[in-house]
Amino acid sequence: MKWFITGASKGFGLAIAKAALERGDIVAGTVRGDADLATLKALHPTNVIALKADVTDRAQVFAAAAAAEEALGGIEVLFNNAGFGLMGAVEEASPAEIKNIFDVNVFGAINVLQAVLPYMRKRRAGHIINVTSVSGWAPWAGSGLYGATKFAMEGLGRTLASEVAELGIKVTNLAPGGFATEFAKSSLNVVANKLSDYEGLARDAERSMRDTSHPKGDPAKLAQAVLKIAGTENPPVRFLVGKDALGYAEGEIAAMQKDIAQWRDLSLSTASD
Question: Minimum mean pLDDT among 19-28, 59-68, 159-168, 210-219: which range?
Fold first, then answer.
């Protein structure tokens, strides 16, 4: 299988790259720095194509996708993975912090999709795996802006799945819970302007992310799960990964069903006569 992986230098991207290579697959991956480029190249003597690209730079993304398409002889699976977290209450986030996280997590991901889709459309085949988060299912106080980007990607991915199904392209939204990656150390930003009124529940997300005593999922096992669904005939559109992810999502669905039931009559009362 032939993979195009963004954010391949660490976390889920690196775990997927390693697992795919161990299986004998071929991987084209993007990284941002020269050191990461060397690290990625060192994973395999022949089956790695290491590319530099910042997902917020549309020209770089399209050039990397074109290079991957040519080197691989066709991108079969896109692992759309680049992103980072932002902890802080909604009121605390500055316009620059908000723009930055949306530029990477949403607009960067869209850049990647729009760069790869023409190749998949031409072949009438391909599987897109978008890394979202359980935060795109269940709101978490203190991570509203991060959650907003993941809610956006959940909606985008589900819509895209319906748009490209008749073109032979599959789409899966991968929504992990907490995993033992370097996310909390290297990919987690905190708002610069903290307000004392939000030192309660609004700090829960940050405290939980920093808590190393809390059991977290195994990235290598996540990688094996992704390899199992990649390229299958009927992959899931929604794939929650991890015990905590399932728990949060099930709780959110139950709360939603309760609200619908409680306010059903009032909702229906707005129908025209």
Answer: 210-219
Q: Tell me, what DSSP letter sits at residue 94? A: -
What size, in residues, is the chain? 273
Q: How far from each other are the two terminal CA atoms of the chain, in whole angstroms? A: 57
**E strand intervals along 118-272:** 126-131, 169-176, 188-190, 238-241
Q: What is the pLDDT of residue 212?
A: 64
DSSP bridge pairs for 3: 27, 77
Digit-coded pLDDT (tens) for 72-123: 999 999 999 988 999 999 999 999 999 999 999 999 999 999 999 999 999 9
From the candidates 119, 146, 198, 248, give the one annotated as an active-site residue. Answer: 146
Cβ-proximal residues to 118 (8 Å cutoff; 6+ apart), any chain: none
Active site residue 146: yes
Which of these, 251, 202, 179, lies nearest to 86 by C-alpha position?
202
Residue 123 token pair? 């072949």
Spatial CA neighbour of 101 closest among 116, 113, 83: 83
What's the pLDDT tens digit per position in 204-226?
878 777 766 666 899 999 999 99
Q: What is the pLDDT of residue 180?
A: 80
Helices 11-22, 219-229: axis angle to 10 degrees equals: 60
**Tokens found for residue 103:** 């530029």
- The residue to which tokens 């990964």 are assigned: 241
Domains and CATH numbers, the chain: 2-244 (3.40.50.720)
